[in-house]
Specification:
single chain; 379 residues; alpha+beta; DNA Polymerase III, Chain A, domain 2; 13-stranded antiparallel beta sheet; 16% helix; elongated
């Protein structure tokens, strides 16, 4: 039966990564648990909610080989409160786990047999895509906030990931796209490594899976990706993720993005972002923050459309020399876009009342945000 000794910091690190994966609402008690098992001089920790599976390996002193499943939250919280540099985990009869603390104290937790724990899918035996962790993290951060929460828009409830040969044929372009039907974000990055596949790699990653992928990418030099028809496989150092893919076709985003720029103006990102946040304070609806923008040469006036609990108006300098025009949009959408942009000066394009608003920046190469305008007919 399992008996190991491991450093507390290693156990806490492993369990803190596993906890977000564990399904807290399920009636399947066993997937409230983590699976612990020995492998040579290591302890393997696995967690799953049947949509996402996680595995990590930590060094340990294996006294006896074995496996057990234990409630993830309880095990984490007990170990977190123990003031010892190393922890002993010992399996008892009937799948109980004992955690002794010297000769002064001990804790025991009821576990379950590991036989019913869902089997982890191993990384495919084919050449993976290798992507820098900081690149993957940034692409996710720039797209995840516009993923749809509407269950009826199934293909839009995740992020589209595309990998293909770059336009010059010399490198590899990594692209992520998300949309909720009211807005769309596209972020891409080109790597110097060549793309040798015949067809474009294209999958849709569910939102929770993308969040876990972002966490795994943080501070990692390289992320290895692979996929089959139903799962995305991710590996970095001793950590692995298996994420169930969303079936179906993502809408043709290229058909939505306007090819022309008939009316563009430029503004200071920090000034406009601060003004939008201030004006949003007096708008009652927390999710739908309607703003009207009146554009004239060198000036933009922003005002709240919802005047139930107050009203606000601000004038800001912009770079524009064309005919005056007006547009309306959800301020929350623009706030979220500006918060992930690096450019000090932002370009906004608005062709006509039926065309989307496009937001881009000189220092945000490969990033395009699209926001559908609101109607001003009732104003």
């Amino acid at each position: 039966m399992l008996k190991i000794k491991a450093q507390k910091e290693n156990l806490i690190s492993a369990l803190s990564k596993a906890l977000p994966i564990v399904d807290k609402k399920t009636i399947m008690t066993i997937i409230n648990n983590v699976l612990l098992y020995t492998a040579e001089d290591q302890l393997v920790v696995e967690a799953t909610d049947l949509e996402i599976s996680f595995r990590t390996i930590i060094p340990s002193e294996v006294i006896d080989s074995g496996s057990i499943t234990i409630n993830a939250r309880k095990l984490y919280e007990i170990i977190k409160e123990i003031n010892e540099p190393s922890i002993i985990l010992e399996e008892l009869d009937n799948h109980w786990l004992r955690i002794p603390i010297g000769d002064k104290a001990e804790y025991t937790i009821a576990g379950l047999a590991p036989d019913e724990f869902p089997k982890f899918r191993d990384f495919p035996n084919k050449e993976p895509f290798v992507i820098p962790g900081k690149v993957l993290k940034e692409l996710i951060e720039r797209t995840i906030f516009s993923v749809s929460y509407d269950d009826r828009k199934y293909a839009l409830s995740g992020i589209l990931l595309e990998i293909e040969k770059s336009q010059d044929g010399q490198g590899t372009t990594i692209r992520m796209v998300s949309s909720d039907g009211h807005r769309l974000n596209l972020a891409e990055h080109t790597l110097e490594s060549s793309y040798d596949e015949e067809e474009k790699f294209s999958v849709i990653i569910l939102r929770k899976g993308a969040n876990e992928l972002k966490k795994l990418s943080d501070a990692r030099e390289e992320i290895l990706l692979n996929a089959d028809e139903k799962f995305l496989y991710v590996k970095s150092d001793n950590d692995q993720l298996v994420i169930r893919l969303i079936e179906g076709a993502f809408p043709d985003y290229t058909a939505i993005i306007p090819k022309e720029k008939n009316r563009s103006f430029y503004f200071n990102k920090k000034d406009v972002l601060a003004a939008l946040k201030r004006i949003s304070i007096v708008i009652q609806d927390p999710s739908f923050k309607g703003i009207k923008a009146s554009i004239s040469p060198n000036m933009m006036k922003l005002e709240s459309l919802d005047k139930k609990i107050g009203q606000a108006e601000e004038k800001l300098e912009i770079s524009y020399s064309g005919e005056p025009f007006e547009l309306a949009f959800n301020a929350r959408y623009l706030i979220e876009v500006l918060q992930v942009m690096k450019s000090d000066t932002v370009e906004m394009t608005f062709n006509d009342e039926d065309s989307p608003i496009i937001v881009e920046g000189e220092d945000d190469k490969g990033f395009t945000a699209l926001i559908m305008p609101m109607s001003l007919e009732d104003e």
